[in-house]
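Action item from last meeting closed. Structure (496 res):
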């Protein structure tokens, strides 16, 4: 985008002007902020915890707190020790989503024109989630995928859904999975699959692989409500006789699969690419619950900053904040977002590397979260929650880290934990971790394996030696509750 910095300045000005009369806007003098420099000097960088009291009041029904007027809905995301986080969505915020979503879809349709001739499977909203509201009557969660596209496009989107929106409201996970797979199998013109985590789609494909013949029988039953044509049923019976049936053969008109493929999703996206064979898998870029940071475009190897969907700042390792036109290719930054839904200089915790420019807009590689943050498939575990989950164990050493398969291991000292105590430790810790709705969701849908316990020989000594080897001072090394590193199974010596 040739005028990226000008668009960013305009977006910041529009957000500040719209919300100048809110409590937050009055507190920080939005009305008199003249430029980006003043914005940075006057408005603090915040985390969710910094804003939680404001959000609680909005959830209770107050208006004009962070944003002018009404909040349309909240979306629930990863929890802290005080419970799940509620991210506000306003109509202006949803419109900001569309300013990124629609250009991406237009670019995708230009590259794959046959998408327009078929149906799509969208998995944007969490499945099997019962409708809820806050104490003030504000919905938690949008009513369906079409809500992200707006009223003008919603009818068109609804008419092309391979899986109808009412399936997402099925509360029983097994029943939801069965209905989703049946609708997908009945769809003979499936052209686009869009999900968040590649493990989500892999789980559905695994279910089809395990139960293909039975699912074909259900589609063929006279009472079937899935409306699969006889020719489609015969086609499926032939294709699903083998558990390793590839998606390209099940859906011959499938053009693209869209999912996360950077950061911690890299290995799972690689496995999905192997599974879908010739069907292209396009990475989604960086889409957070709070807003869109970057979108993929066919012309560029890395996603492009969504300059018209919010105002973005990039914090370098020295703590300096840079605007969109002041970042350096090859350098890494933490992302700050200012959104249409009431988040100002909000630290989302994502780390990116600038890989180049699309005009003036930087192209970004998502690297992941900090060392003490882990997100394998959208579960968003923080060290704060990990600490709260393992503190009741009262152990000198206890650390959560990713396992070889999607899931986590709790590493403990074998001198403290007898073998027969491991199962109880796993159950109690997993119960505490499930206070995070994203973790509970990933476990329920089989995206994460059950928590395991690994008894180790003198793990604290190993941890200290590792820190010293990385140049840390001994007095600065503390055992973390959570590590995002994947190879602790190799570093720690397993107890006999």
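Sequence:
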């Amino acid at each position: 985008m040739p005028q990226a910095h000008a668009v960013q300045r305009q977006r910041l000005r529009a957000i500040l002007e719209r919300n100048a009369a809110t409590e937050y806007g009055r507190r920080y003098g939005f009305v008199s902020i003249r430029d980006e420099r003043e914005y940075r000097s006057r408005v603090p960088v915040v985390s969710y915890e910094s804003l939680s009291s404001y959000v609680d009041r909005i959830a209770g029904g107050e208006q004009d707190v962070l944003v002018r007027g009404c909040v349309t809905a909240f979306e629930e995301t990863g929890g802290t020790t005080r419970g799940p986080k509620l991210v506000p969505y306003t109509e202006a915020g949803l419109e900001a989503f569309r300013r990124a979503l629609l250009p991406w879809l237009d670019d995708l349709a230009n590259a794959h024109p046959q998408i327009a001739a078929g149906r799509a499977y969208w998995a944007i909203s969490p499945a099997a989630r019962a409708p809820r509201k806050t104490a003030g009557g504000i919905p938690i969660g949008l009513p369906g995928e079409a809500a992200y596209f707006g009223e003008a496009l919603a009818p068109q989107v609804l008419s092309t859904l391979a899986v109808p929106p009412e399936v997402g409201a099925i509360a029983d996970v097994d029943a939801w999975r069965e209905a989703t797979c049946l609708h997908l199998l009945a769809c003979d013109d499936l052209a686009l699959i869009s999900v968040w985590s590649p493990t989500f789609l892999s789980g559905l494909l695994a279910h089809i692989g395990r139960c293909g013949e039975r699912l074909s029988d259900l589609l063929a039953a006279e009472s079937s409500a899935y409306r699969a044509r006889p020719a489609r049923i015969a086609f499926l019976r032939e294709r699903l006789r083998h558990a390793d049936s590839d998606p390209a053969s099940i859906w011959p008109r499938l053009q693209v699969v869209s999912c996360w493929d950077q950061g911690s999703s890299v290995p799972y996206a690689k496995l999905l690419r192997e599974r879908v064979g010739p069907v292209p898998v396009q990475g989604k870029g960086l889409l957070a619950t709070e807003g869109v940071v970057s979108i993929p475009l066919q012309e560029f190897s890395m996603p492009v900053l969504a300059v018209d969907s919010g105002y973005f700042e990039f914090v370098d390792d020295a703590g300096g904040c840079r605007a969109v036109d002041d970042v350096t290719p090859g350098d890494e930054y933490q992302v700050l977002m200012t959104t249409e839904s009431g988040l100002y200089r909000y630290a989302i915790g994502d780390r990116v590397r600038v890989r180049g420019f699309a005009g003036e807009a930087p192209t970004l590689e998502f690297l992941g979260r900090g060392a003490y943050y882990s997100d394998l498939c959208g579960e968003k575990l923080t060290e704060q929650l990990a600490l709260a989950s393992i503190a009741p164990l009262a152990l000198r050493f206890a650390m959560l880290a990713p396992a070889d398969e999607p899931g986590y291991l709790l590493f403990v000292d074998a001198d403290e934990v007898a073998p027969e105590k491991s199962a109880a430790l796993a159950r109690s810790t997993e119960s505490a971790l499930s206070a995070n709705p994203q973790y509970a969701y990933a476990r329920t849908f089989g995206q994460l394996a059950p928590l395991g316990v690994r008894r180790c020989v003198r793990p604290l000594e190993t941890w200290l030696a590792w820190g010293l080897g990385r140049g840390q001072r001994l007095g600065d090394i503390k055992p973390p509750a959570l590590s995002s590193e994947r190879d602790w199974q190799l570093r720690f010596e397993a107890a006999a």
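Note appended to the action item: The first helix runs from residue 4 to 18.
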